[in-house]
From TrEMBL:
Positions of the Hcy-binding domain: 3-289
Protein name per its UniProtKB record: Homocysteine S-methyltransferase family protein
Coiled-coil ranges from the UniProt annotation: none
Organism from which the protein derives: Candidatus Limivivens intestinipullorum
GO MF annotation list: methyltransferase activity; zinc ion binding
Gene Ontology BP annotations: methionine biosynthetic process; methylation
């Protein structure tokens, strides 16, 4: 997919993404503390069923489960030398799941490591790490890329620089922002939107973090500071930890969609769900979307 084709797609109306992956894998039995990437390859049907449900619900884009398949994060499980194989095979699981009924985005996220001077990771090293992962995703046949749940502006810039250096795919960028628009590792909503837009991102916005009811001002600020489409892919509200240690999101699909409508009014035009959402949430969001066939 070219950047021009992505732009045309966003001009058709609200573009619907998928919902959560991780929280649904836990529901399906994935233990905590394991490599998500390795577990998916051992249980591919779980991911395929989830992504097929998203497409049936109306998702135009699904995210390949390559989220943390970078060499720094994979090192936590002794899998850093498997970066190429894991990204290639994980992407193929998604492609097999949806075929060409939906676009498949190569998914890239934070390494969780701080850049200098706050940490020991250099910008150049981070660019190299992302080049490795993104290069594989491009070769695997990704339709586009998404940099998601990024924790700071600088690391997002490094990933975007890496993407631009290895391919010409459209890149969507979303950070995990607090309700006041700040990112954990630095940057605010206005600066993030303006900077990533200027660097060539095809869309910018927010994912994860908090619920849609807390993001209206953040989305409005990003819309005011970027010329590209704005993404909203929040959690199903704030999580509650049960006495058994389970994470529960209490916002219903209907309530989620109602708050997402406010984000659309604030300027978001690429929407989906993150933690706590499933296909039922996407079905509700579909009612907000205008596709090429007209109002759904």
């Amino acid at each position: 997919m070219t950047k021009q084709e992505f732009q045309k797609l966003t001009e058709e109306g609200i573009l619907l993404l998928d919902g959560a992956t991780g929280s649904n894998l836990y529901k399906a039995g994935m233990p905590r503390g394991v490599s998500t990437e390795q577990w998916i390859l051992e249980h591919p049907q779980v991911l395929k069923d989830l992504q097929r449900a998203y497409v049936r619900a109306g998702s135009r884009i699904v995210y390949a489960p390559t989220f943390a398949a970078n060499s720094i994060s994979l090192k936590n499980f002794g899998l850093e030398k498997e970066t190429e194989r894991l990204n290639m095979e994980l992407f193929q699981v998604s492609r097999e799941a949806v075929g060409h009924e939906a676009l498949v985005a190569g998914d890239v996220t934070t390494t969780g490591k701080l850049l200098e001077p706050a940490g020991e990771l250099t910008y150049e090293t981070l660019v190299h790490v992302y080049q490795e992962q993104i290069g594989v995703l491009a070769r695997a046949g990704a339709d586009l890329l998404v940099l998601e749940t990024m924790m700071g502006l600088e690391e997002t810039m490094a990933a975007l620089d890496a993407a631009k250096s290895v391919c010409d795919l459209p890149v969507m960028c979303t950070l995990s922002l607090e309700s006041d628009g700040t990112a954990r590792f630095g940057g605010g909503a206005a600066e993030i939107a303006e900077t990533l837009d200027a660097m060539g991102a095809s869309a910018v916005g927010v994912n994860c973090s908090c619920g849609p009811d807390q993001l209206v001002s953040v989305i409005r600020t990003m819309r005011q500071n970027a010329s590209v489409p704005i993404i909203a892919k929040p959690n199903a509200g704030m999580p509650v930890i049960t006495v058994l240690g389970d994470v529960v999101y209490n916002m219903t699909p209907e309530t989620f969609a109602r708050h997402m409508e406010a984000l659309v009014e604030a300027g978001a035009s690429v929407i989906g769900g993150c933690c706590g959402t499933d296909a039922s949430y996407i079905s509700e969001l579909r009612k907000l979307c205008v596709c090429s066939e007209g109002q759904i």
